[in-house]
Amino acid sequence: MSTVIIIGAQWGDEGKGKIVDFLTQKCDYVVRFQGGCNAGHTVVVDDKKYILHLIPSGILHKNKKCIIGNGVVLDPAALLKEIDTLNNKGIEIDNNLYIAKNCHLIMPYHIAIEEESEKNGKIGTTKKGIGPCYTDKIARNGVRMIDLLYPDILMNKIKVNLEIVNFLLVNFYNSKPLNEEHIFSQYLDYAEKLKYYISDTDIVINNAIDEGRNVLFEGAQGTLLDIDHGTYPYVTSSNTIAGGACTGTGVSPKKIDRIIGIVKAYTTRVGEGPFPTEIKDNLGETIRQKGGEYGATTGRPRRCGWLDLVGLKHAVRVNCFTGIAITKLDILNGIDKLKVCVGYKYTNRRIDEFPKELEILKHCEPIYEELPGWKEEIQGVKEFDQLPENAKAYLNFIEDFLKVKIQIISTGQKRDEIIIKEFPL
Ligand code: GDP
Ligand code: IMO
Ligand code: MG
User: Beta partners for 43?
Assistant: First the structure.
């Protein structure tokens, strides 16, 4: 049996969905453990494109158990819409979806509060209510999935929360109050539609592991967006690192076999926050166009930059990757010289570790190594030996610097556009 955690090593959108979809072939269970519908995981199968937000990317394979763990914050409206979209594309959920009783629900007032607080563009969030929902969870005011089955408890929680939220909306934000009866009846309707999926997912997953099943844990966002280990406050509100897979599911670290870091061959970031290797000239735009670097959830253009090995070294440390998957190598075709950041310059000092101080990170200048690029088209290449020598050298440089094996190289959007150097399960 194998349990494998898939983690974004940068600022999200590394191609986690594609790799999870590929590895699902050999897995029985795929589990989301944090985040919510702020995630947008794109999977392309037979020229059809699917974007998964809440449902694990394993759903595109028949009869794989897909689990939304307790660490996720779930917007029932978004989930129902996603189920609908999948059904319309011929993907049936059947009895393959399990939702944790103890995952927290995103409520309309979370979205309303976030829309107001983001009006001055503070973080550049996805406005899906993620931050306010986690705030209520930690403050012990949250509404959980299981509350949907207890209308009295549900109504009481909505009432208590709205007293505060409406005060803020009206008196602080000069906005309109929300109606508790309306929210209550909306959520009763969701309860009717989603009650079949509610489960003790900690028991389901642990039993599966104990029976020797292969279980994949699908991370959302990325290490540098982690609430503790990312570029705070320009982060998301959950633990996106490997440790989050344990707290977000109720599976002990003792039961985890492998942790795969997903690394895009360059770097992107959506939203505000420091990004030392951002390319601000035309090349950034070229990469954005070629790589289709627009948010899968919000459609916002992603900021593009060179590979940052300082940030990745930090990701290797806090996650302890047992292997790496490099994605989107094909997007770098045709660039004459590739830059790779191997350190930062801050004032007159060299810094080799990713700084925790935002004020320092903001003013860090990347120290680059230049590597020769390649002209050959590599999209769809399936064998490592068929890569141009300069592409191999680029990969070897990353491997040597990070001291972690590159096990997978993705060379295109489609499921089979992939090189497997070492199967990680
Ligand atoms: P995720 O959030 O980490 O799952 O990544 P996204 O789906 O938001 O963004 C990754 C984008 O790159 C998607 O459009 C994928 O279809 C695409 N993609 C993934 N791997 C590759 C690859 O190796 N080459 C190319 N060209 N596109 C890729
Ligand atoms: P996937 O799983 C990239 C970013 C937002 C914003 C910050 C906080 O597709 O990689 P939030 O709505 O989470 O409170 O926003 O985090 N962000 C992502 N960036 N990929 C994601 O998910 C993201 N989810 C959130 O742009 O900067
Ligand atoms: Mg994404």
Answer: 50
